[in-house]
Amino acid sequence: MHFTGKDIVKIDNLIEKLDEIDLVNPYSMTASEKMPFLQDLMNSLTSFHYNNCIGYRNFTSVFNDSVNHPLDIDSIPFLPVRMFKQHDLFSLDKSFIFKTLNSSGTSGQSVSKIHLDATTAKRQSKILSSITKNFIGDARIPMIIADSNELFKDRAKLNARAAGILGFSVFGRNHFYCLDKDLNLLVEGLIEFLDKHRDGPIFIFGFTFIVWQSLIQYAIKNQVKFDFGNQSVLIHGGGWKKLEDQKVSNHEFKQALHDHLGIKLVHNYYGMVEQVGSIFMECEHGYLHCPNYAEVIIRDPLNFDVLPFNREGVIQVLSALPVSYPGHSLLTEDLGTVHGEDDCGCGRKGKYFTVSGRMPLAELRGCSDTREVKI
Predict the structure, then answer these.
(1) CB distance 283 to 250 below 8 Å
(2) Distance CA 201, CA 140 (A)
(3) pLDDT at 97
(4) DSSP letters of 71-92?
(5) Cβ of 101: how many Cβ atoms within 10 Å?
(6) 188-237 pLDDT per residue, tens
(7) Which candidate, 272, 234, 255, places its Cα nearest to that of 358?
């Protein structure tokens, strides 16, 4: 490893420019403003990781021997996301690493290991805050977490699900974990919480399949309705694979939330532990949005050529945030479609897209797909 203190100072100084721009409005940059700026950042990160991570250098050298020279966004080399399951990848000396996140996984399934230094973790937290506030506002409101607090008994084994809860919990107050250790609904506690906060909005966060199985399905099977109030907002993500298997669409999910919980404001997000903080939030028109510091590219799964708008292909995600590990350009195992750029009806700039499902034979990876829930 050829890492020096000057390397990290150089890359931090460059990315600080991004922090100054997008903390107020993370969707402010049009394509003509964003591309030169993001391209500069992505090239700097590519060069940094190439020079400081042996695994990244060995992999990308097979495909491109000019990563230390300026490249177009479309030409930035990518790592298949499952590489983080198979290899221990980091670009800083281990003495800089203070936290390692693990993706969730079923028994016997390999997990991704993401190594974070303090600066990268802080930057990811700030960007996540900027994105979330753009959708739910600045005020901290009473919060229901559709999960169990048993997840945090061993902080040394923090997985993607627990990290997601911690990341979003800072936007709420008076937190109530509405599920027990077996992910069964704590009905009396939930009713008491809703009654106590009935006069104002409530922020609800949870992983998609857990919300569906432990909240919505409980209400349906027991023929009860919970009144979360029409001011409340739910943010959820991950775990769509099992809902697809059950033939539950995004529209049906939202309709069930409205019918059985009274929740009208719902924002799905697309993200992964391999790019913590780099989430793509769903707007009121049903599209996922790229913030200023991140981008998606849709590629042909057969030859990896870049596909035009309105063509489905495999999703490549790019983020200017990862410094401690080479996660700035990743090829996912998900299929999606970019529908446009800078002209979504919600007013946010940047590309907007949808995710249609997993590639055939792709490994099951959703954060909340990792255990069955009994009701």
Answers:
(1) no
(2) 10
(3) 85
(4) --GGGS--EETTHHHHS---SS
(5) 21
(6) 999 999 999 988 999 999 999 999 999 999 999 999 999 998 889 999 98
(7) 272
At residue 97, the 3 state secondary structure works out as strand
Q: Is the dihedral of CA 272, 278, 281, 287 positive or negative?
A: negative
- How does pLDDT run across 333-348, given as a tens digit for each residue? 999 999 999 999 999 9
Rg (CA), the chain: 20
d(C-alpha 148, C-alpha 247), whole Å: 26
As a dihedral over the C-alpha atoms of residue 133, residue 136, residue 151, residue 120, rounded to 10 degrees, the angle is -10
Q: Give the predicted TM-score (pTM) of the model.
A: 0.88
- Under 8 Å between Cβ of 132 and 171: yes
Angle at 365 between CA 350 and CA 258, to 5 degrees: 65
Percent of the chain with pLDDT over 70: 83
CA 292 to chain centre: 15
Superfamily designation of domain 5-80+280-358: Luciferase; Domain 3 (2.30.38.10)
The residue assigned the tokens 């922020």 is 203
Strand locations in the chain (E): 79-80, 97-102, 113-117, 141-145, 172-177, 203-207, 233-237, 265-270, 280-281, 288-289, 294-299, 313-319, 329-341, 351-358
